[in-house]
Design goal:
The complex is a heterotrimer of chains A (about 375), B (about 350) and C (about 350).
Chain A: E1 4-13, E2 16-26, E3 31-35, H1 42-50, E4 57-62, E5 65-66, H2 72-75, E6 77-80, H3 92-102, H4 107-120, H5 136-149, E7 154-158, H6 166-183, E8 186-191, H7 194-200, E9 203-208, E10 211-216, H8 218-223, H9 228-233, E11 240-250, E12 253-258, E13 262-267, E14 278-283, E15 288-290, E16 298-309, E17 313-320, E18 325-332, E19 342-347, E20 353-356, E21 362-364
Helix pairs in contact in A: 3-4, 3-5, 4-5
Chain B: H1 16-42, H2 47-51, E1 60-62, E2 64-65, E3 74-80, E4 86-95, E5 98-103, E6 106-114, E7 118-120, E8 122-124, H3 129-137, H4 140-171, H5 177-186, H6 192-205, H7 212-220, H8 223-233, H9 238-246, H10 251-262, H11 264-280, H12 283-288, H13 297-305, H14 312-344
Antiparallel strand pairs in B: 1-8, 2-3, 3-4, 3-7, 4-5, 5-6
Helix pairs in contact in B: 3-14, 4-7, 4-8, 4-11, 4-13, 9-10, 11-14, 13-14
Chain C: H1 9-40, H2 45-72, H3 90-95, H4 110-143, H5 148-156, H6 163-173, H7 179-188, H8 198-226, H9 231-238, H10 243-271, H11 275-280, H12 293-302, H13 309-338
Helix pairs in contact in C: 2-13, 4-8, 4-10, 4-12, 5-8, 8-10, 10-13, 12-13
The chains are: A alpha+beta (about 375), B alpha+beta (about 350), C mainly alpha (about 350).
Chain lengths: ~375, ~350, ~350
């Protein structure tokens, strides 16, 4: 149960800086996810936490103790690799006990831990098999087991579910969450899949190009994204983005004019925008409804490009406005439309997210 | 627990194993390079220098000076007189422990000094005649020609025959295909050293003894060559060949115009190997060839040894000549060679 | 049509001239080939393609194998096999006629048994020595972060030299006036004529062999090392596994199949030692200290005063059997390594 503190962490390869000053505070026993697009530095950051990658500048502490110069083993962390990194020539039992043998633990204690972990992960039936005789899901559990037996202060997961098929992924996700509840150890989980992050983590760190975009609880990130990047990254399918202009501001909200969406008042106090400003409007697919625009609401028409039918819900993809912006509308239940047909949609302005056109900074969020 | 783990390696920092690794690598490089460098340097020394001991690091020869009244240039020495003064002198004649020398500024006056007072002056000198003499005297130009002939002809034939066989084995189905492939592979288990005596009988029977063609023909069909090319040809899509057949191309034309150009990389690797193997062949040419005018470089080189008076300056020069082509090939094509070896375990 | 489209422009011109030349050759060669095809049909053309190769293999490999066995059962000094008397197992019996197999001087053909003993010791030392140095060098190169390609090339270079060149370079290095003796004189005030002393010459024959061939085996082991996945080392590092334990428990077991193949290859090569040793010692000396089996066969068959083709063939057959056993085990091991 360890708290981790990262202050102004930087990482450079030669003259190329890839991590630019990251500050993150992880509470003891927290499950925190690091998400971001490929190349954002999340894996590098994880390796810096683990000690496999040296820290170029900044300070990392575990429970207020500086760990920059400690080796991975000295930090007492355990890591589950994307490729599992199981020792191919050793049995499952040996894979689990190998690390413990380094600590010169006595045999009985090693066996006790191995058996306990195996039982917890339901792999006690395979203890004498070699990794190549196991399925992907089983191998993954052995990798987790190897981490558990060490009773580390921190668990690190490097995209552990990427190599599993969809069904197994969902199943294993809940197993990892259950594990966290059971062990109550601090867990840092790297993934590129924001759905995984949203469902598993207590706190999410969104990374982009080596910088932190936002840290917060899943729902906070969803309802109040700090900037355009987070708004577009979190939530599937992604938020609809439209350009607009501020017509007038007042104590009850701002009136916007948009070529695509018409003119409407967005309610809200203290929105930092001036009359005449350019502004970016964000609308989640689930906040758009098909139908004509009622007075006071915003809306527009779209030319249908594609209809994705999930059975219990449908996503309609289309193009709107003069600049052919992509619009996605979430329709509950079953819905059909012809490609090329024209559909009208509308929305309640209270759900509009507003962002500065200058730096993408959020000006107003929206509750669901 | 933490104390025990203190010996683990820190990423990004060098520790003792890294120093050891670099030490081994550098030491190994010296072990490889020094004997070869020493041979090359020595090959440029004069005969006198070669036989002198302890060996000097730089090739030198005696400094000479032309003096009035003397027919040939005289060697230059420093004489240390009993009173400690030094003087540059030229040596006229030496008999036993007594030397007749003269001062170059006063060439008419010769005087005698004991040999112990003299120290020879040498200057940097590269004896290139070590390279040209054997070409004239010992027929090395002929050996070079023989070796080039064998290497080029054998390589061309190897590429031709092995690629045809590989083509047949990879792109056709015919009765006996697997048997023939197995037979060819089985020859890998029969090294020359086991069949060298009867192979010689065959050569004699074919009237090819003491003939360069006897050396060439027996080395042309290599199982490794067929194997390598076949592997590569298997990756050529059959559709290309089918299309050509539809276009009424003859099988030979298909082989020549389509398959061969497509396996250029594999052919290049095989060509490099073949050149190196044929250039370096020793035992087989030794057995087949008996008259000196047919010798290859390797045989000629080793025959220089047998002489009573070992002329190291010539031997070393010809050794350098022999290793130069392979070295040049290596410098330019090293990557292909090392990758080819690693992937196929080829000799 | 003949030059691949991906070749750079300056080479295309040369390539085109080459292509035209090759085209001309093709047109000439095509005439008989196309005629053959008309005669035999396209389906039988593969036989035509593979024929030259099979003919050469037959003449220069299969026939000699048969002849070797045949000659082994004949005696006398005539070259042609039909002029030679049949002697049954005489040659084999003669070779194997020994008071004690461990004492060559008690054998009828003590040179053969001296050669066997020499070859035995050489094989043992050469195999172990080369294996050790190739393994360590491969580990070192695998570990280096920079200059990998350079050092790999440096260690491999000697492999490309000819045995004559290697033998002569080292003979010169070890000569009375050579660099090593120069060094010894400077530092230790002694001089050793290495190649004239039995113990030293044997040591140097093994050393030169290792120097010569190590690079080749190093490449094979390096390939095996690089096939081991990197992430298991990171996992071990996180568990605090020491470098030594990582080598002993991870690298070595996973490299074992590769090392076994290398060992058998080494054994096969070592048994056939001749070229560089013969040149280095200028004939297998001092005396017969460095005479190996292949030299025995060569001398027995080709020395003008011996010409005992039958005996030499018998020795070849014996050696061939030993090599066959080793080669088969190498194939079997290679197959196991792939699984």
């Amino acid at each position: 149960m360890t708290a981790i503190s990262m202050k102004d962490l930087r990482k450079s390869y030669g003259s190329l800086e890839v991590i630019h000053g990251i500050d993150i505070e992880v509470q003891s026993g927290e499950f925190i996810a690091l998400v971001g697009p490929s190349g954002c530095g999340k894996s590098t950051l994880l390796r810096m936490i683990s000690g496999l990658e040296p820290i170029s500048a900044g300070q990392m502490s575990f429970d207020d103790q500086r760990v920059n110069d400690l080796s991975p083993a000295q930090r007492q962390i355990a890591m589950v690799f994307q490729s599992y990194a199981l020792y191919p020539h050793m049995s499952v039992r040996k894979n689990l006990s190998f690390g413990l043998e380094n600590l010169r633990m006595d045999k009985a204690e090693i066996n006790r831990r191995v058996d306990a972990a195996a039982k917890m992960l339901a792999i006690d039936g395979y203890l004498d098999r070699r990794p190549k005789a196991l399925s992907g899901g089983q191998r993954q559990r052995v990798a987790i087991g190897r981490a558990i037996v060490r009773q580390p202060r921190v668990f690190l997961f490097d995209e552990p579910l990427s190599n599993l098929d969809a069904k197994l992924r969902v199943q294993t996700r809940s197993e990892i969450t259950k594990l966290h509840k059971q062990l109550k150890t601090t867990m840092i989980y790297v993934t590129h899949d924001q759905v995984e992050a949203m469902t598993m983590a207590q706190k999410i760190v969104v990374l982009n190009k080596g910088k932190v975009e936002q840290i917060g609880r899943p729902l906070d990130l969803f309802e109040r994204p700090a900037n355009l990047f987070v708004a577009g990254f979190i939530g599937s399918p992604r938020m609809n983005i439209y350009p607009g202009k501020v017509v007038s501001t007042g104590s009850d909200g701002v009136t916007l004019d948009s070529a695509t969406l018409g003119r409407f008042l967005v309610p809200g106090a203290g929105i930092d925008a001036q009359s005449g400003d350019d502004i970016t409007i964000g609308l989640r697919p689930s906040h758009l409804k098909l139908g004509p625009t009622t007075p006071g609401a915003g809306g527009g028409t779209m030319t249908v490009e594609q209809v994705e039918s999930m059975g219990h819900e449908t996503f309609v993809y289309g193009r709107t406005g003069q600049s052919d912006e992509l619009t996605i509308v979430h329709v509950p239940g079953h819905f059909e439309a012809e490609t090329g047909s024209s559909l009208a949609f509308t929305f309640d302005p209270v759900f509009a997210h507003l962002f500065s056109s200058v730096d993408g900074r959020a000006l107003k969020g929206a509750r669901i | 627990m933490i104390a025990f783990l203190a010996r683990t390696r820190h990423p990004g920092r060098t520790d003792i194993t890294d120093w050891l690794a670099w030490g081994w690598a550098i030491l190994g490089t010296l072990v490889v390079a020094i004997p070869i460098a020493w041979a090359v340097i020595s090959s440029l020394k004069t005969e006198a220098e070669i036989n002198s001991f302890p060996p000097a690091l730089v090739p030198r020869a005696a400094q000479t000076i032309t003096v009035e009244g003397q027919e040939k240039p005289l060697s230059v020495w420093i004489r240390t007189a009993p009173d400690g003064s030094e003087q540059t002198v030229a040596l006229v004649r030496r008999i036993g422990l007594s030397a007749t020398v003269l001062d170059p500024s006063k060439p008419e006056e010769t005087f005698r000094v004991p040999v112990t007072e003299l120290r020879q002056l040498k200057e940097f000198h590269l004896q290139f005649s070590n390279y040209t003499e054997p070409m004239k005297q010992f027929d090395f130009l002929r050996y070079l020609w023989n070796t080039v002939f064998v290497t080029v002809v054998a390589t061309v034939l190897t590429l031709l025959l092995n690629s045809m066989a590989a083509f047949a084995l990879s792109k056709y189905r015919f009765a006996g295909r697997n048997a023939m492939f197995a037979l060819i592979l089985s020859t890998m288990m029969i090294p020359l050293s086991v069949i060298m005596v009867p192979a010689f009988m065959v050569i004699v029977g074919l009237n090819l003894a003491d003939n360069l063609w006897g050396v060439i023909l027996s080395t042309v069909s290599t199982p490794t060559g067929v194997f390598l090319l076949r592997q590569y040809m298997l990756t050529i899509p059959d559709d290309l060949i089918e299309a050509a057949r539809v276009d009424a191309a003859s099988e030979f034309r298909i082989y020549w115009r389509i398959v061969l150009p497509l396996c250029a990389p594999a052919l290049a690797v095989l060509a490099i190997f073949s050149v190196i193997w044929r250039w370096n062949d020793f035992l087989w040419p030794l057995i087949v060839l008996s008259s000196p005018e047919n010798y290859t470089l390797q045989i000629g080189l080793s025959s220089l040894q047998g002489q009573f008076n070992v002329q190291w300056h010539y031997i070393l020069a010809m050794t350098v000549v022999t290793l130069l082509p392979v070295t040049v090939v290596f410098l330019f094509l090293q990557k292909y060679i090392t990758e080819g070896v690693a992937s196929s375990g080829v000799k | 049509m003949t030059a691949p489209a991906s070749v750079a422009p300056p080479v295309v011109a040369r390539g085109e001239r080459l292509g035209e030349g090759l085209d001309a050759v093709m047109r000439v060669a095509e005439v008989p080939m196309a005629a053959l095809q008309r005669l035999l049909g396209a389906a039988r053309m593969p036989y035509v393609f593979i024929l030259p190769n099979m003919v050469l293999f037959t003449i220069f490999v299969f026939v000699p194998v048969g002849l070797a066995i045949a000659y082994a059962f004949t005696g006398g000094t005539n070259l042609l096999i039909w002029e030679r008397p049949y002697v049954g197992l005489e040659n084999f019996k003669a070779l194997l006629d020994c008071g004690s197999y461990l004492e060559p001087s008690t054998c009828r053909y003590n040179l053969f048994w001296t050669a066997v003993h020499n070859t035995w010791w050489y094989t043992l030392l050469n195999t172990l020595g080369t294996l050790f140095f190739a393994l360590v060098t491969a580990l070192v190169i695998n570990r280096l972060t920079r200059g990998r390609g350079f050092f790999r090339a440096v260690f491999f270079y000697p492999v490309l030299l000819s045995p004559v060149v290697v033998g002569l370079i080292w003979q010169w290095f070890l000569a009375r006036e050579g660099l090593l003796n120069g060094f010894l004189t400077d530092w230790f005030d002694t001089r050793i004529i290495f190649l004239l002393e039995v113990g030293w010459s044997r040591l140097w024959v093994v050393y030169v062999s290792i120097w010569f061939h190590m690079g080749f085996f190093m490449l094979i082991i390096l390939a095996g090392l690089q096939a081991i996945p990197r992430d298991i080392y990171e996992a071990a590092q996180i568990d605090g596994t020491s470098q030594w334990r990582q080598f002993w428990c991870l690298t070595l077991p996973l490299l074992m199949p590769n090392l076994l193949v290398v060992t058998v290859l080494l054994l096969i090569r070592s048994v056939q030692v001749f070229d560089e040793a013969w040149v280095l010692t200028n004939g297998g000396g001092p005396g017969t200290a460095n005479t190996f089996i292949v030299q025995f066969i060569y001398q027995t068959a080709f020395s003008p005063d011996l010409r005992l083709y039958g005996l030499a063939s018998a020795a070849s057959v014996l050696m061939g059997i030993a090599l066959l056993a080793l080669t088969l085990s190498q194939l079997w091991l290679a197959k196991k390594a792939q699984v």
